[in-house]
Each structure stands twice: as structure tokens, then as C-alpha cells.
Give the backbone structure.
Amino acid sequence: MPTGVEILLVEDNANDAELTLRALKQRNLANQVFLCRDGAEALDFFSNGASPVPKVVLLDLKLPKVDGLDVLRRLKQDARTKTIPVVVLTSSREEPDIERAYALGANSYIVKPVDFEAFARAVSDVGLYWLLLNHPPQ
Amino acid sequence: MRWSIEHKLPLFATILLVAVAIAQLTIGYGEVRQASLALADKRLPLATKVLADLFQTGQGRVRITALAKDPAIVAFLRSGGRSGREAALAAMHRITTDTASNAGLELRNFSGKLLLRTGRFSIADSVLVSPGKDSARYGPLLRRDTTLFIAVAAASGDAERAGGGIVQQVARLSLSERTRATLTGLAGGDVTLLLGNAAGDPWTDFATIVPAPPPSVLTSRTPVRYERGEVRRASAAPVPGTPWMVVAELPSRVIVAPARAYLKTVAPLAFLIVIAGVLIAWWASRRLTKPLVGVTRAAEAIAAGNLEPRVPAGRDDELGRLARSFNTMAEQVARSHHHLEAQVAQRTQALEGTNAELESFSYSVSHDLRAPLRAIHGFARILLEDHQAQLDPEAQRLLGVIDQNTRRMGQLIDDLLAFSRLGRKEIATGLVDMEELTRTVADEVRRTDAGRKGSLVIQIDPLPPAHGDRPLLRQVMNNLLQNAAKFTRDRADAHVEVGSQPNGDQTVYFVKDNGAGFDARYADKLFGVFQRLHSTEQFDGTGVGLAIVKRIVQRHGGRVWAEGKVDHGAAFYFTLPSAAR
């Protein structure tokens, strides 16, 4: 099991994952990123009691096996994981998705820009904010 | 109260019946009264004639004339003497025993001295009547206290010589109920008969003494109206050979009694007829209007949306036909309504299907299309950043083209999604201050205005408020002002005007600029999705802005149009419901 995980990235699209990691790497935030390829993997990560608690979860919505919104609901329902900040990082800017995500307790909702510079800026800003600026409960 | 036919019909029937009854009673009463009066006017002169004849043909005068010529009387007046006196008295006694017991008979000389007298009755020591020459004459009626007298006298013997005298009879006029009954019996039951002097008092009705009738009655030859105690009708006639007159009279009350009797009999009958007529009218009206009320109620129910009611159609007449036609019509309405409902349900289902497809399409567009696009853009950039040294300038230029087009496609996708969302969005209407909204948008446009060579003036006229969805109207104004700013970018002194003019219950708002304008032939193409009249090199943009403007305005019940000329600016108009509504 990985140790010292700070960011849990749930992303099925390999390209998006690579771009995200690259953006994080440029800010030196990529060392402690753990990548899950689908929702089931993400839930497994948390069901293992030995797993470290990440500082933030970057969650895509459209995922194989278990949908992103399902993952979000399970995390927020579980007392052990509900304080972990979850940032929805998705291509969808459909109003129903945004509303449901917030209703389930998402801490933030970021629409992935098509423009790479804008995308890289958004990802690194999110990383910096949650890892460095945010102060989670101990 | 509601003045329905059901109430009006019996009311009119009642008014009609009452009017007819009143007219019938009035005319009938008038005619009977007129006939009664005519009858009375015939009866009264007849009665006076009978009475006058009765008095004229009295035997008194004949007897007195005969007595005056009796030889015994003449001899006694001439010679006197005991035997002559006895003979004269005997002659007089013959008459007094013949006549009524209330008469007295006298023999006087011309100077009035009483010579002989028979009978139990005497009134005075004088001659009451100056006698005629050769026949007896009646004097006027005389009154002593409550008694009336009739005096009749005749001259006897030789009037020129001392041997003459006067035979005079004085009789009390019988004033008894019996006399009256007899007389009125002769004249006809209810007639009152009066006798008196032509010259005036005294007068009698054969029961009591009464005041003389007025001269108007005594001088008229035809029946006249006068008042004695009550209103009466009277006819007068002289008694020939005497100074008397007789009057026959009837109270008007008695004359018009048949008319009253007519009223008394006919009025209750008319009343009964009116009541019966009203009841029949009410019944007929109910019978007539009840089916109509039924049809009306059913029609109202159908108009209100309940298609079930039918009306009873058992009758054979026009109302029955109406009911049957109504039921047929209701049946057709119900059938076409159900057909329509089924169609609407079908279409709704189809529409919902389309809508769901559209939603999943836009979801796919936003999610599935953008991810590969981001990958293309991202890796092209990475290539350019990480491997610049290995790339020659031409390869770098080609990567730049990829970069530009992926950005543009991202913009297209975003605009398309915005446009598609608009069709599904609910419109929230409220009062929108268009002037304040325009100022806010104009400030933003000025702030983000870039690449301009000259100055930009946005002139905002006073704008009336509109009725609509503020965020959407803000987008309309934003798109139009952004366009105006974009197409005036090359102008040295760009001028944009926002104004309005009323148009019925709508307001026409417009945005005019002095920019690049457009070819008026393509004015209707401006509002289509992805329609552009300028190249991307000239002016950037995806061609969705005006399509969004059109869709928002149309969803507000307004319309859009544009006027323009190449290089002479453009004007965009849109109408919105006025806030005053």
C-alpha cells in the first residue's frame, strides 16, 4: 500500500490523468498522488483500513464500474471519510451534475477547460489550495 | 333575480291576462251603465205621463161641474127658502157620500159667504179657487201644517145676478204609504213620484212634504240629473188642466245597479280566469324551459371541461330534436376531445423522448467531445513546450494551427451547449429595469473591449422596463452590445446607441452601431446557429450569439430583426412585453 498519499486522483481517461499529473508535477505536487482508474478502485482504497488518509480527492464524474457521484455519496456517508475534501473535476458543466454533486457534499466543482494552459492552471491551483492553504481537521 | 325565459313567459302572460280582464270589465261596465241610463231615460217620462193622466182624468172636476148645474142648487141660490135648502143639501150629500171621506163640500155666494156645507171637513171661510165660467177648475196645492189640500171649484147659477154662487170641494191629499205604493207600482217598482205646483212649493212624494225640485228639472222636457239627498235622474211633466206638475225620479245608484251587479258577477270570474291563465302559463313555461335549462346546464358543464353530461331526449317536438342534436354534438366533442388528448399524450411522449435524447446528446457533447479535444490540445502544447528544440519552424507553425483550432472547437462546443440549454430552461418573468441592465452590460463591454483603434461611445437613451427573465435579457443585451463593440473595432469614433419605442402592448428596443454593417440581403441569415457573414480572420466568434438572442426573445413572446448596410453600421431590434401589462 502506498504511504504518504496526499492526493487521490480518480480518473479513467489516461490522457486526462497524464495531463493532470503533469500539471501537478510542474508544481512539485505529483510525488504523493495515488491514481484510481475507476470508482471501484477508489472505494477499495478507502475500504482498506491501512490506507493513509489523502488531503484531497480529485474525482471525475463519468467513471466505469462505480459512477463518480456514487463514490462521492459513499465517501460522504462514511464517518471515517466524510471530512476528506472532495473536488469534482469533470468535463460536464451540466447544471444537474453540479447541483447533485454539491447536494452530496462535494467541496468544490471544477469544469476541466479544453484549453490546456487553463486546464493546467486550474489543476495546479486546486492542488496548491487543498494541500498548502487548506487546514483539515486532525 | 335572474330574468330567465322561465320567469319572463308567465310574467308576460299574467300582464296580458290582467290587461284583457281589466279592459273587458271596464268596457262591459261602461256598456251596461249606458244601457241602464238609456232605459231609465225611457221609463221616467213614461212614469210622469201615467201620473199626469191619472190626475187629469180625476172624476172630481166632472162631479163638481155637474153639481154646480144641479137644479136644486141653482134654485136654492136663486130663491132660498127652507125646502130649497133641503133639496140643495141633499144634492151635495150625494156627492160627499160618493167621494172620499176626507173631502168637504161648500156652497158660497160670490162674495165668499158660506151658504151650505156638507162633509166632516172644512179648512177655511174663504173661496180657495176662483172658478171658471162653465166648468170646474183646480187650484194650486195648498199646505196647512203637514197636510196638503186640493181645492176644486165651479160657478153655479147666473154669475151676473145675485142668485149665483160657487160650489167648492176641498180634499186632503192622501199622504199614505199605501198611496205611494200604489202609485210607484204604477210607475214601476223603484221610481219615486212627486207632485207639486208648477210655480213652486208645496211638493210631496205622497208620503211626506218635500222641497220643490229645482227649475232645471221642471222646465226640461227630457230627463235631467239633479241632487236631492243623493244624485238622481228626474223627468217632469205638467198635469193638463191644472197648475200642477208631476216628477218621476230614480236615484243614480239604482239606475247603475245593473252595471255594479255586472262587475260583481264578472270580476270574480275574470279573476279566476286570470289565475287559471297564470297557472297554465307557468306550467307551460316550465315544460318549455325545463329541457332548455337542461341543455344549458349540460352545455355549461361541457364548456367547463366536463364532457360527460347528456340531456333526456324523449320528446317528439323541436325541443326533443334540440336535445338529440345536442347529445350528438356532445358525443362528437367528447370523441374529438379524447382523440386530441390521445394525440397530445402521444406527441408529449415523443417530445419527451426527443428531449431526453437531446439531453443525453448535450451531455455527451460536453463530456465525451471535450475530453479528446483537451487531449489534442494538451499534448500539442506539451510537444511544443518539451520538444521545441527538435522541431523546425514549420512543425512549430503546424502545432500552432492545431492549438488555434482546438481552442475554437472548444468555444463552439460551449456555445452550442449554452444554446441548447436555453431551449429547456424555464423562463421566470418579472419586472426588469432595462435601462439599469443596459448600463451594467455596457460597463462590462467597455471594460473587456480590446484591440480598439479609436474611441467607443455607448449612448443609452431612457428605456422603459420590460416584463421578462432578467438573466436571459441580460444575455440578450450582452450579446448585442458585444457584437456592436466587435464590429466597430476598426472605426475611429465608434458610436453605439441603445433606445426604444413603444409598439402597442410591446416595446421595441434597438441597438444601433456605425460599424462594419452587413449585406441587407442576408439579414434573415444573421440569427441562424453558426451563421456568420464575416470571416473569422475579420471578426472572431462562433455565430451563436444572435441565435441565442433570437431564441430568448422568442421565448418571451417577442421578435427580432435587423437592418444594415455594408460599412454603414447595423441596427438590431427586438420586442418585449411592456411592464405595464
About this structure: Chain A has one domain: 7-133.
